[in-house]
Design a protein that fits this description.
Layout (H helix, E strand, L loop, with lengths): L2 H14 L1 H25 L5 E5 L3 E8 L12 H25 L3 H24 L2 E9 L2 E2 L5 H20 L1 H4 L2
Antiparallel strand pairs: 1-2, 2-3, 3-4
Length: 174
């Protein structure tokens, strides 16, 4: 089978699953964009609004790195190029895997990961950093601030792991 034929088959599989792709990618992506814009337009950078005293704040911080500020101290130009390139490659890989995936839990997981990757990519392209605003803490320990896109990625990965371990574990035992 030629490369073009393989690409056509992959694209057809994605189109056949478009309801998952649209619902679990576009809806969370819209929520991510809207919430980040609300934060940027209503809060000062590095400010915090207590929501549940001693547990949860809404904050406005910019994360130049990846999860938990990974690579935040890398040269800004290289970091930007690295994250944009890696994210674009990851999106294509996710679309390819999405086309092959048969389970609904797996499809949902990959669609959510795609949504989160796209949401943070948009921030990186336009601002060079990602807007984070959900701040959970206990006493003086603060979990690193995160956003809707990060939540989508975490939930998506969790769904895929649950699918692999419990729902379709026979598929993975081969």
């Amino acid at each position: 089978m030629s490369f073009n034929a393989k690409l056509k088959n992959i694209w057809q599989e994605i189109v056949n699953k478009k309801k998952y792709l649209l619902f679990f990618t576009l809806l969370p992506l819209a929520a991510d964009i809207i919430t980040k814009n609300i934060i940027k337009s209503t809060m000062e950078l590095y400010s915090a609004v207590p929501v549940i005293d001693g547990f949860f704040n809404i904050v406005y911080v910019l994360n130049p790195g990846a999860a938990f500020s990974f690579l935040h101290d890398m040269n800004e130009n290289y970091r930007q190029l690295f994250f944009v390139t890696v994210t674009i490659i990851a999106i294509f890989i996710i679309l390819y895997i999405f086309a092959l995936e048969k389970s609904k839990a797996g499809n949902t997981g990959f669609a959510l990961i795609l949504s989160g990757a796209a949401g943070n990519l948009i921030d990186r392209i336009y601002m060079g950093k990602v807007v984070d605003f959900l701040d959970f803490y206990y006493s003086s320990y603060h979990f690193p601030a995160f956003n809707v896109a990060d939540s989508c990625i975490t939930i998506g990965v969790s769904l895929i792991i649950i699918d692999m371990l419990f729902i379709n574990k026979k598929k993975w035992e081969k």
